[in-house]
DNA sequence: ACATTGATTACCT
DNA sequence: GGTAATCAATGTC
């Protein structure tokens, strides 16, 4: 995952004046912010700042634990679904692929991810204690345009050596 | 109204 | 190593 701040963050979508795309970033936390990159991939963020403060976390990758068959089906049905299917652990190993695997598009923006009855929600899985996970912090990916001061910040977090992480 | 660009990925040599 | 696909948003006229 990767952290993005408000107008002061030269790498953040919130650096621009509020638009229909990024307005939700300034709203209450726990909501979804989905944007389209390069005209093809829809990337999922979780709004994190308090209401009135723009901030969000981009879900860059995740490990498929259940519904692998559904993810493969979603991938095949996607307009940019690749011809060959990857191994299970690579079904969501990138921000664009997370969107493809879950069938998420920009219409999901604003959805409350903390609603226990929601179709897409954040849960705490007590069966796996991530407090002991070997987490590494690295610079964010693909934001060199923001300049060294921001591109150099280690705001990307990943489990070290995890097979589902998008890049080492 | 038109030109440029990106929080990416898959496929090619 | 390089490039095509494809569009919302920004910047320029």
If you had to describe this structure to a student in words, what would you say it looks like?
- By secondary structure, this protein is an alpha+beta fold.
- It is built from three helices and six strands.
- The protein has helices at 68-77, 95-102, 148-151, and strands at residues 2-4, 32-37, 41-47, 56-58, 135-138, 156-159.
- Strand 3 (41-47) and strand 4 form a beta hairpin.
- The chain binds a DNA duplex (13 and 13 nucleotides) through residues 2, 4, 11-13, 16, 19-21, 35-41, 43, 45, 58, 60, 80, 82-84, 94-97, 106, 140-143, 145, 166.
Topology:
Elements: E1 2-4, E2 32-37, E3 41-47, E4 56-58, H1 68-77, H2 95-102, E5 135-138, H3 148-151, E6 156-159
The structure holds a DNA duplex (13 and 13 nucleotides).
In short, what is this structure?
This protein has 168 residues and is of the alpha+beta class.
pLDDT averaged over residues: 92
Order of helices and strands: EEEEHHEHE
Terminal-residue CA separation: 13 Å
Uncertain residue ranges: none
Sum up the structure in keywords.
3 helices; single chain; two-stranded antiparallel sheet; 168 residues; globular; four-stranded antiparallel beta sheet; alpha+beta; 13% helix; DNA-binding; 16% strand
């Amino acid at each position: 995952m990767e952290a993005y701040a408000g107008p002061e963050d030269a790498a953040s979508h919130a650096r621009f004046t509020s638009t229909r795309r990024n307005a939700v970033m300034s709203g209450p936390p726990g909501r979804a912010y989905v944007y389209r990159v390069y005209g093809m991939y829809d990337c999922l963020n979780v709004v994190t700042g308090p209401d009135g403060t723009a901030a969000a976390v981009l879900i860059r990758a995740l490990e498929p634990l259940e519904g692998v068959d559904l993810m493969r089906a979603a991938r095949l049905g996607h307009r940019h679904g690749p011809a060959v299917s990857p191994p299970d652990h690579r079904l969501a190993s990138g921000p664009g692929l997370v969107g493809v695997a879950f069938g998420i598009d920009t219409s999901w923006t604003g959805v409350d991810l903390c609603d226990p009855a929601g179709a897409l929600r954040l849960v705490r899985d007590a069966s796996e204690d991530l407090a002991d996970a070997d987490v590494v912090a690295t610079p964010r990916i693909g934001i060199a345009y923001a300049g060294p001061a921001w591109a150099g910040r280690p705001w990307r977090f990943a489990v070290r050596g995890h097979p589902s992480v998008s890049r080492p």
